[in-house]
C-alpha cells in the first residue's frame, strides 16, 4: 500500500528572469501539492512556464520567490533522488544501450551485478531487450526514449520528471509509449510529474491534470482523473474521458490558444 501522505508542497512559487532586454516574469505565483505515487500531468500553452516549473521543482533552477518541500525537506538545490527525461533523449552515442542505462550508477560507483540485472530488466519491460549492445544511433526515436526512461529509473528514484518526452514521436509510437509508461509507472510506484502539450495524453496518463495559463504561468484548473488504472487506449472514447478533455480544451479556447 502506498503512503498517501502529502509528498510535495509548492507554495506561492514564482520565477522571474532578468535578461539584457528586460525582466521576464515566467511563472507564478503557483501553489499546489501532490501525494506519493501520483502521476501529475501539466498542460498549458507554449511558453507558459511548464518546463520552468519542472526545473524549479527538481531544484535544477532557483525560484525567485516561494517555498518547495519534498518529503518535508526544503528544495534548495538539485534533488538527488529523481529521474529526469527530457524531450531530447540525451543518450551518449559512443556508449552502448546498456552502458547508457548504467551511467547513473557508474557515476556513483554503484555498478555491480544487481544493478546490471535491474538495467536489463528495465530494458525488457520497456521493450528494448535484445538491443543492449547496440549503439543509440542504431535505434528509432521511440526506442531511444525508452532507453532514456530506463536510465532515469535505474536507481529507483522517488520521483520521475518527464518533460514532453514523446513530442517528437509519430502518433502510433506515442500511443504505445503512453501504455508502456503507464504500466511501468504503476509497477515502479514512482511519483511522476509529466509535462505534455497533448490534452488526451495528459488525461490518459495522469491521476491529476494541472492546467496552466499563458505566461506568466498560473494554475487555472486542477482536475482529478478518477478513471481506474490500468487504462487502455479505448478509454479515450468513454464519456468521463471526453468530459475531462473538453473541460481542459474550453480553458484554452477561452484564452484564444485553440
Summarize the structure in short.
With 258 residues, the chain is of the alpha/beta class. The protein is built from seven helices and ten strands.
Helix/strand layout:
Blueprint: E1 6-19, E2 22-35, E3 39-43, H1 50-57, E4 65-70, E5 73-74, E6 82-85, H2 97-107, H3 113-125, H4 141-153, E7 159-163, H5 171-188, E8 191-195, H6 199-205, E9 208-212, E10 219-224, H7 239-254
* Helical residue percent band: 25-40%
Largest sheet strand order: 6-7-8-3-9-10
Outline type = globular
Summarize the helix and strand pattern as letters: EEEHEEEHHHEHEHEEH
Number of helices: 7
Query: Which fold name fills CATH's third level, the topology of the domain at 8-81 and 157-255?
Result: Rossmann fold
Low-pLDDT runs: 1-5
Largest sheet: 6 strands, mixed
| Number of strand elements | 10
Please state the second-level CATH architecture of the domain at 8-81 and 157-255.
Answer: 3-Layer(aba) Sandwich
Overall mean confidence score, pLDDT: 91
Query: Under the CATH scheme, which class of the domain at 8-81 and 157-255?
Result: Alpha Beta
N-to-C span: 41 Å
Radius of gyration: 18 Å
Q: What percent strand?
A: 25-35%
- The secondary structure category is alpha/beta
* CATH homology-level superfamily of the domain at 8-81 and 157-255: P-loop containing nucleotide triphosphate hydrolases
Task: Report what the structure shows.
The longest helix has 18 residues, at 171-188. The chain has seven helices and ten strands. The chain has a domain at 8-81 and 157-255: P-loop containing nucleotide triphosphate hydrolases (Rossmann fold). Mean pLDDT is 91; it is low at 1-5. A hairpin with a 2-residue loop joins strand 4 (65-70) and strand 5 (73-74). 33% of the residues lie in helices and 26% in strands. The chain has helices at residues 50-57, 97-107, 113-125, 141-153, 171-188, 199-205, 239-254, and strands at residues 6-19, 22-35, 39-43, 65-70, 73-74, 82-85, 159-163, 191-195, 208-212, 219-224. With 258 residues, the chain is an alpha/beta fold. A six-stranded mixed β-sheet has the order 6-7-8-3-9-10, sandwiched between helices. It starts with 5 loop residues before the first strand and ends with a helix. The radius of gyration is 18 Å and the shape is globular. Helix 2 crosses helix 3, helix 2 (97-107) runs parallel beside helix 4 (141-153) and helix 6 crosses helix 7.
Amino acid at each position: 500500500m502506498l503512503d498517501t501522505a502529502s509528498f510535495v508542497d509548492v507554495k506561492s512559487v514564482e520565477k522571474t528572469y532578468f535578461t539584457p532586454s528586460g525582466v521576464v516574469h515566467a511563472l507564478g505565483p503557483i501553489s499546489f501539492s501532490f501525494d506519493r505515487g501520483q502521476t501529475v500531468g501539466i498542460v498549458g500553452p507554449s511558453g507558459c512556464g511548464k518546463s520552468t516549473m519542472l526545473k524549479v521543482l527538481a531544484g535544477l533552477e532557483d525560484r525567485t520567490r516561494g517555498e518547495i518541500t519534498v518529503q518535508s525537506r526544503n528544495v534548495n538545490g538539485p534533488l538527488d533522488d529523481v529521474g529526469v527525461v527530457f524531450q531530447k533523449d540525451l543518450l551518449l552515442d559512443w556508449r552502448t544501450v546498456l552502458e547508457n542505462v548504467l551511467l547513473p550508477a557508474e557515476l556513483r560507483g554503484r555498478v555491480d551485478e544487481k544493478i546490471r540485472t535491474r538495467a536489463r530488466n528495465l530494458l525488457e519491460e520497456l521493450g528494448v531487450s535484445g538491443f543492449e549492445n547496440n549503439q543509440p544511433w542504431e535505434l528509432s526515436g521511440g526506442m531511444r526514449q525508452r532507453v532514456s526512461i530506463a536510465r532515469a529509473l535505474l536507481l529507483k528514484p522517488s520521483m520521475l520528471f518527464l518533460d514532453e518526452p514523446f513530442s517528437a514521436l509519430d502518433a502510433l509510437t506515442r500511443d504505445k509509449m503512453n501504455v508502456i509508461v503507464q504500466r511501468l509507472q504503476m509497477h515502479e510506484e514512482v511519483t511522476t510529474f509529466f509535462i505534455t502539450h497533448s490534452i488526451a495524453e495528459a488525461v490518459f496518463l495522469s491521476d491529476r491534470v494541472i492546467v496552466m495559463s499563458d505566461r506568466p504561468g498560473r494554475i487555472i484548473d486542477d482536475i482529478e482523473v478518477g478513471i481506474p488504472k490500468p487504462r487502455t487506449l479505448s478509454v479515450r472514447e468513454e464519456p468521463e474521458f471526453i468530459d475531462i478533455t473538453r473541460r481542459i480544451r474550453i480553458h484554452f479556447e477561452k484564452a484564444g490558444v485553440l
